[in-house]
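Chapter summary example: a protein plus glycinamide ribonucleotide.
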Amino acid sequence: MNFIFSKKEIPRIAFLISGRGSNMGAILKNIKAKKLKAKPVMVFSDKADAQGLQKAKTFGVETKSFSPKEFLKFEEYEAELVKVLKDKQVEWVICAGYMRLVRKNILENYKNRIVNIHPALLPSFPGLKAQKQALDYGVRYSGCTVHLIDEGCDTGPIVLQKVVDILPDDTEETLSKRILKAEHETYSLALKKLFNGFELNNRTIIFK
Ligand code: GAR
């Protein structure tokens, strides 16, 4: 199966976050510095007290928040989120520490245009606490992965990865910090490549 995305003008993007939003901040900084061409139209969080929402405001980006708990069914939450994204004519959805699975409705509306960053070298250590999983396993290297989101958990086509050494005295905290630095460098680069156009050949992304 081939999927082709051709470069358009400046893509309209929205972020989905659940917490600190440092990846979002790094990307917004690169957009502001004109290192990445994109128009951030909204930052959404499923948590009203997410630190990242305040950060988004300092960049002048509109924020919105509601929780699945406010809806009877998860599908209704996602339907509302899709409506919000469509109202803002969002073209790409950028997950940055959004600690939920993206389900059917968003996937169908944004096929191959939902991106995520994960703090490990996928397919190793998907899911939660990826840095701890890597330390517990005893691997010598870990890193970060930017990937497109599909129906699985951290299973979508890989856009870019960056390797980070694991040091003998690493703790979950020190490793997470080193990986986060790599994340901040890698995410904008990955978006730049995607926005420039790509072809998806089965699982392999070929950049234009
Ligand atoms: C980042 O390390 C990101 O890779 C991770 O959460 C952190 C969010 O930090 N995401 C996941 O683990 C998703 N499975 P941030 O809010 O400062 O960008």
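Key point: Residues 17, 19-23, 52, 96-97, 117-119, 130, 180, 183 surround glycinamide ribonucleotide (CB under 6 Å).
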